Amino acid sequence: MIGDTDGSTDVSTAITLRREMLESIEHKFSALQMSDDLQWPLITSDGTPRPRPKIERPGRFNVDLESDDDDAEDSALREETLIQAYWTSIREKYRSQRLDVQSLSTSETGDLPENWIVININITDDKSALFISRREGGVEGNQPLVFCVPLKGRRDNGDDDEEDHLGFDDAIGELREIVRLSDEGTKTAVNIKSDDKEARVNWWKLRGDLDTRLRELLENIEFCWLGAFKTILSPWSDTTPEMISDLRAQFDKIFQRSLHVKDKKTKQRR
Questions:
Q1: Dihedral sign for Cα atoms in the order 196, 199, 205, 209
Q2: Is 183 helix (H, G, I), strand (E, B) or coil?
Q3: Angle between helical axes of 70-96 and 2-28 (0-180°, round to 10)
Q4: Which residues, including other chains, have CB under 8 Å from residue 263's CB and lie 6 or more apart?
Q5: How far apart are the C-alpha atoms of 145 and 147, rounded to whole Å?
Q6: Confidence (pTM)
Q7: pLDDT per position as a tens digit, 72-130
Q8: Structural contact between residues 32 and 59, judged by C-beta atoms closer than 8 angstroms
Q9: Is residue 46 within 8 Å of residue 96, measured between CB atoms?
């Protein structure tokens, strides 16, 4: 089940990236190959987009091969041909990848270096939970680590106080507001004179306030959303199995002692 969940998140990301890459490559050739963009895009059974019908257009000018600018035009033509050949090869590479059930169900992390870690963070459609998965490179068959982290409810005190809850839309709104103010501050910086000390101090104060807001937002996301699950983002420690066994034994002692004291208090009350 864990592997299926992690694989599904990988597949959704891979399909989206592949389609966006193929579409962006097609736009790189739009100046050379115009197509009818009013037609609905078509795809094959394996998800590969079909090319749209080309629109014939007359040449805008004729090149005089006997002019003095032959060398410059030839150089520009060769450069354009090389660029087009490069993107054509990239397009064919992506088109040749068949997105069938067998290929999508096979993990590719085994081909990555062993010190690489792949983290996927996805949010559900209703924006109520995060799916966080972790895969290690270089290890075939290694089971991924997957967490379903609800964005609400883990720290509720039962008082139904919605104001203290950090929602997804609230976090995105705050982030966009910080970026907007940062952009405005960057644009106004050109109007500040070098000898206007007060204006420079105020500008840096606003930048510092934005840094503080961004830090507080990230801290709230780390505490309210991830909590202890943020350890999935940390590198593996050099802890040995013996150390883990010792730690487990210490926890067991604490639990046993706590349960033993609780049983004693219950008997005394009786």
A1: negative
A2: helix
A3: 160
A4: none
A5: 7
A6: 0.53
A7: 667 777 888 888 888 888 888 877 776 665 665 566 667 778 788 888 888 888 888 88
A8: no
A9: no
> Cα-Cα-Cα-Cα dihedral of 188, 190, 193, 198, to 10°?
30
Residue 265 identity: K
Q: Please, what's the largest Cα pairwise distance for the chain?
A: 111
Task: Report residue 195 as tokens.
Answer: 């000898």
C-alpha pair distances (Å), 263 with each of 58, 195, 252, 260, 269: 92, 75, 16, 5, 10
Q: 197-220 vs 168-188: helix axis angle to the nearest 10?
A: 160
Is 236's pLDDT higher than 90?
Answer: no
Whole-angstrom distance, CA of residue 50 vs CA of residue 177 = 40
Backbone angles phi, psi at 114, to 5 degrees: -65, -25
Quick count: other Cβ atoms within 10 Å of Cβ 135?
24
Tokens of 38: 């009013």
Whether 15 and 47 have beta carbons less than 8 Å apart is answered as yes
